[in-house]
Known about the structure:
This protein is mainly alpha-helical. It is built from 19 helices and no strands.
Amino acid sequence: MPELDEFSDNDDVRVPGRTVLYNIEPLIMGSGLREGLISYLVRLSRAHCLRPRDLIRLVLAVGEADIARLCYNSFYAEYANTINGLGRYARLFSDRLNTLTGRQDLDELTMLPWAELIPEQSEGFIARHRRWCPHCMADQLVEHGEVFAPLAWSLEHYRNCAIHATPMQSQCPHCGQHQDIIPNAPTLSHCCKCGGSLALSPDAEKLEVIRETLIIELLSNPHKAKEGDLQSNFQVALRRLIDERYAGNRAAMCSELKWNSWGLKGWLDKGQRVSFPKLIQLMSTHRLQIPGLCCDTAATRGADISLGQLNNRSKRPMLSATTKARIQKVLHQELQVTEPQSITDVARAVDLTRSALRYWFSAECQEISKRRKRILERTSRKAKLARHATLLYAMTELRRLGQPITRRAVDRGIRGAGLALARPEIRQTFNELKIKL
């Protein structure tokens, strides 16, 4: 920086405007283990020699009635953890701290960049208690000279440290107490109750951290998440995945993931947001990458879907009038039969992709799909009645012979019909019949 006397009277010297609070830099911003907003608040209070709750009461709450109303013990005990989330408190505190520090990026220390995709009330989202990795704390003291809490630590599904492959801790190793989300003292490295160090490393076996690694990848680029259309990108990626791996059969994918058969309808057809646990399950099961969510360098690890495939989808084939007439004739023939083929089979027969067939002949495809659905529902009802009759006969026979109606005995009785109580729908019917008998 030049000395002041080096400037002439004509030089345009612009001194940055002063801010109420120090403009300290959030730690490791370029990583999926970036600092969380609560941690930033605690470090900011330490820089000003204030307790974190006094910083909120004496500085953040001044002229901000919405924050002033939160300065009570039950907020710190029950709701303060959502400051790192994507709801009202996350927006309130990130905006206020941006104003007071002169920064513009503190929303990236919360889950706000993903608000378009993940609902605020998503189950299994933000951890209720503060958690930490003792090994990471020890490393932070050496590398940074202070302890901070990455945003990932506040997520319920981040249960093992992705760096050290050990369980995250939520209770003091000395007194066994949970820690306050926003502590009274401006430190995260010591117990709020007994003052003991939380950086003491307990003995723990190594664990798999696939889910935790995916969470870090997800959090790596919040600025891209804010810039892109998350919901549209997610829908594109999910539809491509269903088409390529399940031949367009949504129910088959739901069945594999143990969801309700209509589980994808809200996300794909109604624009509903995705609960965080199910988003992580999709990413871990299928290595699903959504543009703007995972970092650019995140490997697909064997997935047959990639960002390149999503961003460079092939164009719809142009069909001549003769080809259209030929395909339309095939579709009308399918509508005449009692049990039409699936859209996938018809598309394969006319040498088109499923999506192209639906694009050019949406009305016919919709009618075929409706008929197929009715047939499947009818077949399902018949199968259910057959299962019910087989189970009822087996259980009635056991009672007639004076034998106890146990699962093992019933399982032997229905084995000849190709049934087994290991199947959930059969076990449910068995439980219903047992109550009636």
